[in-house]
Amino acid sequence: MRRKASLILLALAVFFAALSPLTRWYAFPRLAKVPADQYQDMVLEAKDATLLDYGTMTAEKVDRITVVQTLKGNVEASEKIEKTANRDVVVWDGLSYVQGPDGDMVSSFPERYIFDAHTQEPVHATGEMVDGDPVRRTGIEFKWPFLTEKRDYEYFDAQARLTAPIHYRGTQDFRGVEVYYFEQTIPWTKVPLPKTLPVDGITAESVARTGTTRWYTTVRKFWVEPVTGAPVYGEEIHREELRGGTLLGDRDKVTAFSGHVKMREDYIRHTVDLVKSQRLLVLLMTSYLPWGFLVLGVGLLALSLYLEARSRRPRDPATARTREPEPLSA
Fold first, then answer.
1. In the chain, how long is the greatest CA-to-CA distance?
2. What are the backbone dihedrals phi and psi of residue 45, each rounded to the nearest 5 degrees, phi first?
3. What end-to-end distance do the CA atoms of the chain give, in Å?
4. What's the CA gap between 261 and 142, in Å, rounded?
5. Is the pLDDT of residue 258 over 50?
6. I want to staple 52 with a disulfide (CB 3.0 to 4.6 A). Which of 29, 108, 232, 256 is the partner?
C-alpha cells in the first residue's frame, strides 16, 4: 500500500514541478493581456498657467487649465483587425479635451492607438491616427509592457508625431507602491496646429496661410508600476508657441500655452487603488503560482521518497512470525 501511495505522490510531484515553469513562461504570456473593452478617464490640471486668447492673439495668465483624457476600447475595430493580424489586438480611441478656467474648450485632440494586447507593441492598421492624420507609431504610448524593466524605452509623442527615448531614472516609492520613474524631454519642435480651435473662423488652414507656425516642447514624467506596466502618476512641463507670420503682427512669437500639468488628486488615489488590485493578478501568474507549484512539487517528492523508504525497510525479526510448512497429503 505504501509503495502505491509513493508512486502516486511521485507522479503528482512531477506534475506540479512541470507546471511551475509552464505557468510562468507559457501560460502568463498568453493569458496576461489588456482587455479590448477597457475604458478609463483621467483629469489633469495646470495651475497658474499661461494661455493664448485667440481673439486678441495675446497670452494671458489663468488660474487653472483642465485636461480631460479618455481612453475607450473599440471592440468592433479590434475584432476586425485581429482577423488579418492573427494576434490579440486592442484599439484605444483616445481624446484629450482641454478646458480653460471658464469651462470653454481650448482644444480637442483625438487619437486612435492600435497595439498588441500582450506586449503593447504598436500594430499598424487602417485607422491608426493622431488628430485625424494617419501615423505609423513606433514605441509604446500610454502603457508600458507587463513586467517593465529598468531600462530606457521608445515612447511615441503624439503632438510631434515622433518617437524618442524615455529614460529610466530610478526606483521610487509612490504612496506605498514601488514604481519606476521615467522621464522624456522633447526639445522645441515644429508641430501641426490642432484641427479644432476655440474660435469660430480660425482654423489650422487659415493660420497656416498666414505663415504662422506652432512649436512645442515638453518634459514628460511617468511613475510606472513595473509588474502591470501601468503608470500610477504622470506630469508634463508643457510649452507651446506660435511663431512668425502675419498673424502675430510685429511679434516674432507668442506663448500659446505654458504650464505644469499634473494629475488631479482624486484620480491619483483611484489609479493607485486600481493598479494595486491588478498587480496581485499579475503576481499570481508570475510569482505566487509558479513558486507555489514548485514548493508543492518538492514537498510531494520528499513525501514520496519517505514512503518508498518505509516500504523497503526490513521487518523486525523479533516480531516476524514463522509459519510451519503444511504436511502434504497423497
1. 135
2. -135, 145
3. 38
4. 16
5. yes
6. 256
DSSP-derived secondary structure letter, 288? I
For the ranges 257-261, 278-282, 286-290, the one whose mean pLDDT is highest: 257-261
What is 180-238 written as a DSSP string? EEEEEEEEEEEEPPPSS-SSTT--HHHHHHTT-EEEEEEEEEEEEETTTTEEEEEEEEE
3-state secondary structure (DSSP) of residue 321: coil
In the predicted structure, residue 6 carries a pLDDT above the cut 70: yes
pLDDT at 330: 46
Buried b vs exposed e over 63-73: b needs ≥16 C-beta within 10 Å? Answer: eebbbebbbeb
Cβ proximity of 67 and 46 under 8 Å? yes
Locate cell 488615489: which residue?
Answer: 269
Domain ranges, ordered by start, for the chain: 2-22+285-308, 32-263
Contacts of 90 (CB under 8 A, 6+ apart): 33, 34, 35, 36, 38, 73, 78, 114, 115, 116, 117
β-strand 162-174 against 177-191: which pairing, if any? Answer: antiparallel
Q: Where in 131-176 does DSSP place strands (E)?
A: 133-134, 153-157, 162-174
| String of DSSP letters for 31-72 | H----TT-EEEEEEEEEEEEEEETTTTEEEEEEEEEEEEEEE
d(CA 38, CA 130): 20
